[in-house]
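Extended Data, record MutS protein 4
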Amino acid sequence: RNGHTLFGVLNYTRTPGGSRRLRSNILEPLVDAETINTRLDCVQELLQDEELFFGLQAVISKFLDTEQLLSVLVQIPKQDTVKNAESKITNLIYLKHTLELVEPLKAALRPCNTPLLRAYRDSLQDTRFAVILEKITTVINDDTRYTKGCLSMRTQKCYAIKPNINEFLDIARRTYTEIVDDIAGMITQLAEKYNLPMKTSFSSARGFFIQMNVDCSALPNGQLPSEFTKITKMKNTYSFTSADLIKMNERCQESLREIYHMTYLIVCKLLNEIYDHIHCLYKLSDVVSMLDMLLAFAHACTLSDYVRPEFTDTLAIKQGWHPILEKIAMEKPVSNNTYLTEGNNFVIITGPNMSGKSTYLKQIALCQVMAQIGSYVPAEYCSFRITEQIFTRIGMDDDIETNASTFMKEMKEITYIIQNANDKSLIIIDELGRGTSAEEGIGICYAACEYLLNLK
């Protein structure tokens, strides 16, 4: 929610699935150098090939939440209510929209060269995508689309099923069309009768209502005619309805309920035929979320001078900076070097207050996480050791809930680090022993440092 986090810095994803994928990767980075390098190869190719980058971004941004769509498609509602019927019809339209994007996604991936992107392109060759889409298009109109706006989406749901599949459905749809035409005609007549610029509007809560932009002084006696009710005014925009319009809305809703019920029966039958092939959508969901995350990494690199990390037995960062601080300050912060090797893997940082010691420590941990999720890193050059755990003891506060003082909390955290650290851990400790006297604090620091050095 707050953009000033590592997630906020890297989150240029276009789909909900991509955003979730990024979050889970930050919380649990990779520990296999080969997998990380495979991802970095993809990011490098996306940065070098603008056509591939923009082509993929254009297609990926059209995808809806495929994971959520899958979970609601396979659910069987407990009751056949109008709301459930409507959502099932909506989900089928979403499914059609998603499957129609498979071919453009394959086309966008055609020029790629890296093994991971090629593997994703090959996985989209699955014939089940075409089978499901073919089954859907035998029942659903070709021009049925996912659209934004409640009225246009309601129209799409109404006319989703092809004509001549169910005669009663065709009759109900004709009735619905006549009612909507009558509403439009009635509002036109009212506009002529009162000589006011009325227009038909729609909202999911109110149904059809009348709206007009007019200055209060243009109205007779500064008021609307008495037959209009439920009047709301915002600046010079009036929204209102009439008794006849309310009755027509009720007829419209009744007609809609019939349409949805009959459409729902056809949709359920269609979904039962599709269920056998639906597993391929899990694969599609995985491909889309992963591509979205890799595109986000590439996008972040275009906005700042990030560099591709290397993986060796040395932690070396040349002129690295804090990625979140850069976003907050809107300019590149002061850069610093970091160097740790097998034989020299312990560093004590000293300096005056407000000199940036804590920021420097946090920067090292953030760069390590960025490198291990397959992102580029804010530095001129960087090399990392693969770490399996990052332990930090930063920040000072007591905890009333667990009845722990500042000192108690410090001791608990350092105990946890000492008990769980191994030779593949990155340990960052900021001002240990601050919660007690200087002598005792130095003693604790000395003992903890001695123990950690013996670990190697």
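Summary. The longest strand covers residues 207-213.
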